Amino acid sequence: MxxxxxxxxxxxxxxxxxxxxxxxxxxxxxxxxxxRANLVRFAPGARTHWHAHAVGQTLHVVSGIALIGTRDGTxxxxxxxxxxxxxxxxxxxxxxxxxxFMEHLAxxxxxxxxxxxxxxAEAVTESQYGGVRQKRWE
Length: 138
Prior knowledge:
The protein is mostly beta strands. It is built from 1 helix and 14 strands, in the order βββββββββββββαβ. The strands form 4 sheets. It has a 6-stranded antiparallel beta sheet with strand order 1-3-4-12-7-10, with no helix packed on it. It has a 4-stranded mixed beta sheet with strand order 11-8-9-14, with no helix packed on it. Strands 2-5 form a two-stranded antiparallel sheet.
């Protein structure tokens, strides 16, 4: 057993995010583990750019309202305690609603080889971000 030394909170890079986003790395597993977990805090309206994870990603909303969008125009609205699974290779974005902060746990895996874990693309447009929200849990 090992107590993992916490890393300092970091500001997320502007190349991957729109708005103010901060994260705490919870764990970046060492072989044979490939687990990755970050606690990510988004200011109102902040969001990731489009991206896809080679092995998929799971998002667990801790506080606020999360918006998660896909290329088909779907924008899911998720609330604290809800979890969203993004399949391997699916391009998506996630961020905070325009009127409140949001934090989520982002969980994904490394690939175990030289394949990038995450493939980043362009910024999400205001139109994409403001799409019609779906609440699949109602």
